[in-house]
Amino acid sequence: MIFSPISQAILDGDVELVLDGVNSLLADNVSPLNILDEHIVTAMNEAGKRFEEGEFFVPDLMLAARAVQETMKVIDPLLKNLGREKAGRVVIGTVRGDHHDIGKNLVAVMLEGGGFEVLDLGVNVSPEQFISAAQERRGTIVALSALLTTTMHEMKNVIEMLKELGIRNDVKVIVGGAPITNEFAQGIGADGYSDNASAAVTLARNIVSNNKL
Ligand code: B12
Fold it and tell me: Candidates 94, 147, 152: which one to mutate for ligand 1, based on the most atoms within 8 Å of Cβ?
C-alpha cells in the first residue's frame, strides 16, 4: 500500500519531514481535521498493523509515536480553535497501568475542539484520581482510555468505585481504546463507547443533552 508522504514520514519517524508536510498542507488551507484523519490516524493504524505482523518493533513504534506527538503540538491549537461555547466538562485519562496516550490525546483535542472543557489527567491514572477530579464539578463526564487487554478491567474498577461511593448516577462514564468493544462497554455498565475521536464528541454531546448535565 502507498501512503501519503506525511503518513510515510510518520512511519519512518522523520519528525522534520512530517512537520514540513503538515505545515505546507496548513498553508494550503487544508483542515487540521483532515490532516488528523487522513494522515496521522492512517499512519498509526499502519504502525499497529506492522507491529502485529512483526515488521515493527517497540523502538519503531516509539519513533512513529514521537513524530505524531510533535505534529500534535502544531495541530492541537488549531483543533481547539474550532470550538465555541463550552458544551460541558470532561475529565479524561488513560487507565492505571497503561501508558498509551496517542488515542487519548486525540480524543481530548477533539472534545476541546467540540467545545468541551477538558481536564487531561495523563496516563496511568488511578480510579481515585478520576473520581476526585470528576467530583470537582457536578455534571462532569469521565472519559477512560485503555489500549491493553491487561488494563481494560481498570474501567470497571472506576465504575464500581463510583457505585461504592453512591455517586454512580451523578457521573457519566465513556470508554474507548483499541481493545474496547460496545459489548465490553455495556458489560461493565459504561454510559457510552466509541471507536474514534470524532464519534467521542457526538457521544459526549448526546450524554449532556440527554441528561441535562
Ligand atoms: C503506539 C503504540 C505503543 C507506544 C505508545 C506511545 C504512546 N505515547 O502512546 C509504545 C511503544 C510506548 C507502546 C508500548 C507498549 N505497547 Co503498544 N501499541 C502501540 C500501537 C502500535 C498503536 C496505539 C495507537 O497509538 N494507536 C493510534 C490511536 C489513534 O488509536 P487508539 O489509541 O485506538 O485511539 C482511538 C480509538 O480507540 C478511540 N479512543 C481511544 N481512547 C478513547 C477514550 C474514549 C473515552 C473514547 C470515547 C474513544 C477513545 O479514539 C482514538 C482516536 O480515533 C498499538 C497497536 C494498535 N493497533 O492499537 C500497540 C499495542 C496497543 N501495544 C501493545 C503492547 C503489548 C505494548 C507493550 C506492553 C509492549 C512492551 N512489550 O513493552 C507496551 C505497554 C506499555 C504500557 N504499560 O502502557 C499491544 C497490546 C496487546 C494487548 N492485547 O493488550 C498492541 C495492541 C500491539 C500488539 N498488537 O501487540 N505501544
Answer: 147
Residues 65 and 105 in one domain: no
* Three cell numbers, residue 32: 487540521
User: Which ligand 1 atom is at minimum distance from the Cα of 179?
Assistant: 83
Task: Determine the structural domain holding residue 40 and report its residue range.
Answer: 5-80
Q: Does the CB atom of residue 182 touch ligand 1 within 6 A?
A: no
Domain count, the chain: 2
Same domain, 95 and 178: yes
- Quick check: pTM over 0.90? no
Question: pLDDT digit string (tens) for 175-210?
Answer: 999 999 999 999 999 999 999 877 888 899 899 988
What is the distance between the alpha carbons of residues 186 and 57, in angstroms, rounded to a whole number? Answer: 33
